[in-house]
Amino acid sequence: MGKVAFVFPGQGSQVVGMGKELYEKYDIAKELFHQADQALGYSIMDLCFNGPEEELRKTSNTQPAILTMSVICYELLKQHGITPDIVAGHSLGEYSALVAAGSLKFSDAVLLVHKRGQFMQQAVPIGEGSMAAILGLDRATIIEICEKVQSQYGAVQAVNFNCPGQVVIAGKADAVEKAVELLKAAGAKRAVMLPVSAPFHSTLMKPAAVQLAGELDKVSVHDAQIPVVANVDGKIITTGATIKNSLVEQAASPVKWEDCVAEMVDYGADLFVEVGPGKVLTGFTKKIAKEVQNLNVEDIASLEKTLDYFKEVR
């Protein structure tokens, strides 16, 4: 039997109402929502359940909200004896993965990602940066065109290598616009401007990375108890010191998600469980590794479906 990979979603998977039914049914959900509220000093639970959406969409709220939801879903699986052989998370999701791997304490992680969201937002004023998803064009062409635009218009680069045919670029708003124009001319099927408030994972996030390093120095980052695949290079990391350095670098470096999935498949994973809200990563996995089985856990229905699968098949 192959190995099980747990993958944890990043920003964009949030939805008002998430977690409410889990909270009403499971004690661990109540406990973790209350722990998160206590760590943050405000109610992320209320934001998850009731919104408003524009508040939940603010980076400094989205990040702890998704992390809390993801860790609740992870703990529910763990209570049923279902644990991963290897983990990874997309951007913010890497913090959820590290909680699952025993490297970060949940209360530390929830505060870290709240601050990470604040630092990212402060690094580039709203309106000055943007991001766009480029569909149907190869990596090399996208990198080459971004480099050309960058030399004339300022910062723009490929920042998320999500799956074959989907790469996200980020940078200064006018440089992103110019790059989109040239990428379409070079044969991109579509270019979709993303509704985000900052150019995440670009070099413009370096001030955020520096501030994040200061916050990471205040918490304990332990060796991972199970292998974690890092966003920055798609390789397995396990020691606390390497993990800490990787998290700092990750804030202003591209997310190599396609490489992360390939690494997990190489490790022997043939079942991927997306743990947390949405099915964005499941969509990516299907394009990267068509041969693997995919499940997800985000609510009672998907939890029960996943538990049934493990009872019957694994």
The average pLDDT value, as a whole number, equals 96
Structural class: alpha/beta
CATH superfamily of the largest domain: Malonyl-Coenzyme A Acyl Carrier Protein, domain 2
Shape assignment:
globular
Sequence of secondary-structure elements: EHHHHHEHHEHEEHEHEEHHEHEH
- The tally of beta strands, per DSSP, is 10
Cα-atom Rg, whole angstroms? 19 Å
CATH architecture of the largest domain: 3-Layer(aba) Sandwich
CATH topology of the largest domain: Malonyl-Coenzyme A Acyl Carrier Protein, domain 2
- Going across the major beta sheet, what is the strand order? 2-1-9-10
Percent helix: 40-55%
Please outline the major beta sheet.
4 strands, parallel
Query: Number of folding domains?
Result: 2
Proportion of β residues? 15-25%
Distance between the termini: 8 Å
Spans of at least 5 consecutive residues with low confidence: none
* Name of the CATH first level of the largest domain: Alpha Beta
| Number of discrete helical segments | 14
Q: What does it look like?
A:
51% of the residues lie in helices and 17% in strands. The chain is an alpha/beta fold. The chain folds into two domains: 3-123 and 204-312, Malonyl-Coenzyme A Acyl Carrier Protein, domain 2; 129-196, Alpha-Beta Plaits, CATH 3.30.70.250. It has a four-stranded parallel beta sheet, with helices on both faces. A four-stranded antiparallel beta sheet has the order 4-5-3-6. Strand 7 and strand 8 (236-237) form a beta hairpin.
